[in-house]
Amino acid sequence: MEKERRGLVEIKVWDWQLRLLHWAMALLVITLLLLVVGYEWLEDMGVEEEGLEAVHKIHAYTGHILAVVLMLRVVWGFVGNRYARWSDIIGLRWSDIWGHIRWILGGLKGAPPTSIGHNPLASLFYIPLFVVLTTQVISGVILAGEEFKMFPGNLVVENRIVTHTGEAMAHDGNEEEEEEGMEEFLEAIHEFGFYFIIFYLVAHLTGLVLHEIGERRGLFSSMINGRKYYQEDELEGD
Ligand code: HEM
Ligand code: HEM
């Protein structure tokens, strides 16, 4: 192995469950983004309502699969190996983050602070990413219940209508307005998530390329084979 010849120590960082969940999540998120872009294109091309609805329906089904994958990732953050845990993402040290920023601004000279699991600067993006994915799932599931009567969002929507009619006894205009307001609110959250995820993806890939150029420790392949490579002196005291 070329890296071992260069005197690097191999460390098993990402367990197979984390890698599987990462690639499932990446594939699903990219599919969801492409379906949204595809929807816009078809709309501009004048495709009929039925065809457009089918695209949103596929988006919603794909979104429900993402909901399951995200839940599994959340659980894995409590039971996986030490590098899969939430503590590895949340327990970031500001001094390490600054070290990484200085290293990038300084033109990738020398070495940034050693991190074995999640890169601390990247974690600053992973935390809001997981929050946004959760809000995408919650808003998406309710929208799918409202638009397509899909489970389990339909239960939330029906429950709201039953409670409302129970209280108001009669169906009045206010109720409809409130419902539209709710839908607009959910769509606004969902749209914000769309832009955040595009921003995240650009930052994620740029960060990975910069680190691979500057450090050459097999960062890209680490998400495939689970291994990263370090100099022995980097690991002292860890
Ligand atoms: C929308 C698509 C993507 C999402 C949502 C995503 C998300 C994530 C997350 C959350 C992590 C932290 C690991 C975890 O806790 O699960 C991560 C790490 C990583 N991702 Fe992605 N990723 C995406 C696309 C990609 C792509 C396309 C590549 C490679 C070409 C990639 C390569 C990696 C690598 C190498 C790491 C480890 C980085 C580190 O050491 O901190 N990801 N990604
Ligand atoms: C995580 C990545 C996701 C992105 C980037 C994304 C993005 C979008 C965007 C931009 C729209 C158009 C909003 C509008 O019509 O105003 C949309 C619509 C929709 N999304 Fe998502 N979404 C994601 C996840 C999900 C999930 C997880 C679900 C369901 C579980 C979902 C269900 C829906 C539904 C049902 C609509 C149609 C709403 C309508 O017809 O007005 N989405 N999505």
What do these coordinates show?
With 238 residues, the chain is mostly helical. It contains 10 helices and 2 strands; from the N terminus they run H-E-H-H-H-H-H-H-H-H-E-H. A two-stranded antiparallel sheet has the order 1-2. The longest helix has 43 residues, at 173-215. The mean pLDDT is 91. The protein binds protoporphyrin IX containing FE (HEM) (2 copies). The site of one protoporphyrin IX containing FE has 18 residues, from helix 2, helix 6, helix 8 and helix 9. One protoporphyrin IX containing FE is lined by residues 29, 32-33, 36, 56, 59-60, 63-64, 66-67, 133, 136-137, 140-141, 143-144, 147, 187, 190-191, 193-194, 197.
List the helices and strands and how they pair.
Elements: H1 2-5, E1 8-12, H2 16-44, H3 49-79, H4 86-90, H5 94-105, H6 120-148, H7 153-168, H8 173-215, H9 219-225, E2 227-231, H10 232-235
Antiparallel strand pairs: 1-2
This protein binds protoporphyrin IX containing FE (2 copies).
What is the fold named in CATH at topology level? Fumarate Reductase Cytochrome B subunit
Strand order of the largest sheet: 1-2
> What number of structural domains do the residues give?
1
Low-confidence stretches: none
Tell me the span between the first and last alpha carbons: 24 Å
Which secondary-structure class do the elements indicate?
mainly alpha
CATH structural architecture: Up-down Bundle
**Could you give the count of β-strands?**
2
Percent of residues in helices: over 70%
Q: What ions, cofactors and ligands are bound?
A: protoporphyrin IX containing FE
The proportion of residues in beta strands is under 5%
Anisotropy-based shape: elongated
Query: Main β-sheet, in a few words?
Result: 2 strands, antiparallel
| CATH homologous superfamily (4th level) name | Transmembrane di-heme cytochromes, Chain C
**Element order, helices and strands?**
HEHHHHHHHHEH
CATH class designation: Mainly Alpha
* CA gyration radius, whole angstroms: 22 Å
